[in-house]
From TrEMBL:
Alphabetically ordered keywords of this record: Chaperone, Transit peptide
GO biological process, one term: proton-transporting ATP synthase complex assembly
Species, as recorded: Pontivivens nitratireducens
PANTHER family according to UniProt: ATP SYNTHASE MITOCHONDRIAL F1 COMPLEX ASSEMBLY FACTOR 2, ATP SYNTHASE MITOCHONDRIAL F1 COMPLEX ASSEMBLY FACTOR 2/ATP12 PROTEIN, MITOCHONDRIAL PRECURSOR
InterPro entries in the cross-refs: ATP12_ATP_synth-F1-assembly (IPR011419), ATP12_ATP_synth-F1-assembly_N (IPR042272), ATP12_ortho_dom_sf (IPR023335)
Top-level taxon: Bacteria
Signal peptide span: none
Family to which this protein belongs: Belongs to the ATP12 family.
Keyword Transferase: no
Name listed for the protein in its UniProt record: ATPase
Pfam families listed in its UniProt record: ATP12 (PF07542)
Amino acid sequence: MSEWKKKRFWGDASVTRGEDGFSVALDGRAIRTPGKSPLTVPTAALAQGIANEWQAQVDVIVPETMPLTRAANSAIDKVVPQRSAIVDMLVEYGDTDLLCYRADGPDSLVQEQAQNWEPHLEWAEQHLRAPLLRIVGLVPHPQPVTSLSVLREATEALDPFTLTAFHDFVTLPGSLVLGFALLEGRIDPDEAVRLSELDALWQERFWGADDEAVENRARKATALGHAYHFLKLTRERTV
């Protein structure tokens, strides 16, 4: 049997403004999230982006082509009610941050990690006031409690829509520091992927690329790009 798919039932997707923000209406009827909450977003730009996704659907709804809609749904249905747990989970990445764990050899890899990762850890220390230890090897070592507290405070300050994008900024590269670097515009998604895949890319220069690894890297880049675009529209406020 073929899988049932929801068909397009509307003619026009439009943006409406209310007291709490902006919504998308299908033939005048406001969209709701899968959790049955009003899909209300903070900016007209984000609402228009969501409306464009709905308008672009043809015969059946294809959720994979609607990253803004899915992210907004997550912000409302998941991030808002689970905010504390999400903050806890993201801060844990700081305690085992990818950039802090260094190889003990070969020398060329050690140097490459230092050249590429050290500037971002120095930035975190100076800009975020969160110095982190560098650890050689893979055995976990606790990071300074004061630094983790600073990173927690910065994470807790994010609104639900920004926190939704930030979740992907952190979990996809595996680094809280890279997450903040993306959030602050210090790096773009492609650079975040390169930095997070530094060890694998170094190995590929000697042993060649693995097709599955290349595909996974491309998926990571696409997902980070979607989150980055979502954040941009979330911040794009009109006067």
